[in-house]
Amino acid sequence: MPPRLTGLVQGLIGGEGGKGDRIVPPTGFTAQLTLFSAGAMAFLAVFALALALATGRLAERWSSELAGSVTVRVSAPAAQLDARVQSVMAILQTTPGAGQARRLPQDEVAALLEPWFGPDMPVDALPVPALIDLPVSGRDFDPQGLALRLEAEAPGTVLDDHSAWRRPLVSAAQRLRLLGIVSLLLIGAASAAMITLAAKAALAANGQVIRVLRLIGARDITIATAFVRRFTRRAAVGASVGTLAGMAAVAMLPNTSAAGGFLTGLGFQGWGWLLPLLIPVIAAGVGFVATRWAALKMLEGVR
């Protein structure tokens, strides 16, 4: 490890009371700015992390659920519909990789049509095709081959493997997850910028003191260590408060059993609740790197 970095790490974990510490303003706008920015960014980071995790789970659930079954739509004149359904069921029973086919009863079909036609629409009076739910139980299931077979042996029968619905939904969830990851990166960059500005302001305000310390023999590493230690601790404290507030806010969001269900599951599950606890650690690391860079750059210019 380079000597300067070794000195900074030792100063960071060391105790207070060095002569360099006394030049760092313990209060004032730089301290408040660092604490507030670290807390606010950590609060936002919790929600960005929750969004990334929730949309990842959403994409996996939509992909697995929609890929786990196909729907067969049988159309025929009313007098021939039942016979056509029986013929289609016989085909499905001999299809490799297909599970137990089930014809949806009228009440389930009515429930599917209710959002468009309302609860009082007489489904029996409509030319609604018969719907068959076919689970996929094996990897040897061939939807394209089954669709061609149904078209040849049972004209008017359509196989829907949900790909038209699945691809846009999964793509949207994956893009939301990417947006959450990008948001985390932007939050980290903004935190580094704010801490850098605060450290530079504190260094500039103490330029005369720094010159005097150099005259009495203080090294740049001693002065820089004081700023790195203090601003890193401020970043860690502010991020800890913001993280706890963010986790409390996420815990109060509706769960997946609430009505709606699209993003009501936004939150953490199981071991995922431990991930936000890494935010203060990362914030301290960002504060360390940003302050170290700002301190060494500013000290080079103060002569």
Description:
With 303 residues, the chain is mainly alpha-helical. The chain is 65% helix and 6% strand. It is built from 9 helices and 4 strands, in the order H-H-E-H-E-H-E-H-E-H-H-H-H. A 4-stranded antiparallel β-sheet has the order 2-3-1-4. The model is unreliable at 16-20 (pLDDT under 50).
Question: Which descriptors apply to this entry?
Answer:
303 residues; mainly alpha; four-stranded antiparallel beta sheet; 9 helices; 4 strands
Q: Quick recap of the structure?
A:
This protein has nine helices and four strands, in the order ααβαβαβαβαααα.
Number of helices: 9
Order of helices and strands: HHEHEHEHEHHHH
Low-confidence stretches: 16-20
Largest sheet: 4 strands, antiparallel
Note the beta-strand portion. Answer: 5-15%
Oligomerization status of the protein chains? single chain
β-strand number: 4
| Strand adjacency order, main sheet | 2-3-1-4
How many angstroms separate the termini? 27 Å
Mean model confidence by pLDDT: 77
List the helices and strands and how they pair.
Layout: H1 3-13, H2 29-67, E1 69-74, H3 78-93, E2 102-103, H4 106-117, E3 130-135, H5 143-153, E4 157-160, H6 163-205, H7 207-215, H8 220-251, H9 278-301
Antiparallel strand pairs: 1-3, 1-4, 2-3
Helix pairs in contact: 1-8, 2-6, 2-8, 6-9, 8-9
